[in-house]
Amino acid sequence: MPQHLHQPLKAKALIFDMDGTVLLSSAVFERVWRQWGERHGVDAEKIIAVAHGRRMIDTAREVSPPGLDPEAVTAELAQQERDDVEGIVPIAGAHAFLASIPADRWAMVTSADLDLCLIRLKAAGITPPAILITAEDVTVGKPDPQGYIEAARRLGFAPSDTIVFEDAPAGIAAGKAAGAQVLVIASMLKPETLGGEDWATDYTGLTVTVGADGDLTIG
């Protein structure tokens, strides 16, 4: 597994995005948005460029042509995504990596709504954490840091004591704005575009060690 960590990362808790970070759902995501774009005369590539890692309602508000209600667009496409699980798989090593984290030391922050989140986690065979922040739990989506700040609060730590695992520019920006360390899972982004970021293509070479002080070390 290709990876680049400047040094082992230490934190009190870990917070994960879902799509593209612990599971792959881009086949569904792109299929649904491309079909919608074709029906409404919207360039699918422009949609994909702004939609990844963001709440569907935020994307719908940005790309819906005049005369279409973004709320109605969101409801329609959300149902299509709930009905389509073809091609959803866990990222390599994700099951073992997540299982090695103490249950009270990790959370998930996703731009998906709760129903979609649970459907996709089930399709990938991933058990949800006790702390799960979904689209309904925030008033502003990524790249705003609200979700990651709330997840850290529920875990009982400052955001600066957490590591955020992300795959998309909006989520990376949200993690950094929250004050967290960020480890990029380069499932969609090419490593050569990540500059000085800590990154790994998957979890097969990553480990979690719990120190005597309770700190988690990723290496």
List keywords for this structure.
219 residues, alpha/beta, Rossmann fold, 2 domains, 7-stranded mixed sheet
Question: What does this protein structure show overall?
Answer:
- The protein has helices at 26-40, 44-51, 56-63, 70-83, 94-99, 114-124, 146-155, 169-178; strands at 3-4, 9-11, 13-16, 23-24, 89-90, 106-109, 131-133, 162-166, 181-185, 198-200, 208-210, 216-218.
- By secondary structure, the protein is α/β, with parallel strands linked by helices.
- It folds into two domains: 3-25 and 88-218, Rossmann fold (3-Layer(aba) Sandwich); 26-83.
- β11 and β12 form a beta hairpin.
- The chain is globular.
Beta strand %: 15-25%
Q: Unreliable stretches, pLDDT < 50, 5 or more residues?
A: none
What general form does the structure show? globular
Find the CATH superfamily of the largest domain: HAD superfamily/HAD-like
- Cα separation of the termini: 13 Å
Q: How many individual helices? A: 8
The helix/strand series, from N terminus to C terminus, equals EEEEHHHHEHEHEHEHEEEE
CATH class of the largest domain: Alpha Beta
Class by alpha and beta content:
alpha/beta
Largest sheet composition: 7 strands, mixed
Kindly state the percentage of residues in helix.
Answer: 25-40%
Query: Mean of the pLDDT scores?
Result: 93
In angstroms, what is the radius of gyration? Answer: 17 Å
- CATH architecture annotation of the largest domain: 3-Layer(aba) Sandwich
What topology, given as strand order, has the largest sheet? 1-10-9-8-3-6-7
Strand tally is: 12
User: What do we call the CATH topology of the largest domain?
Assistant: Rossmann fold
Domains, number: 2
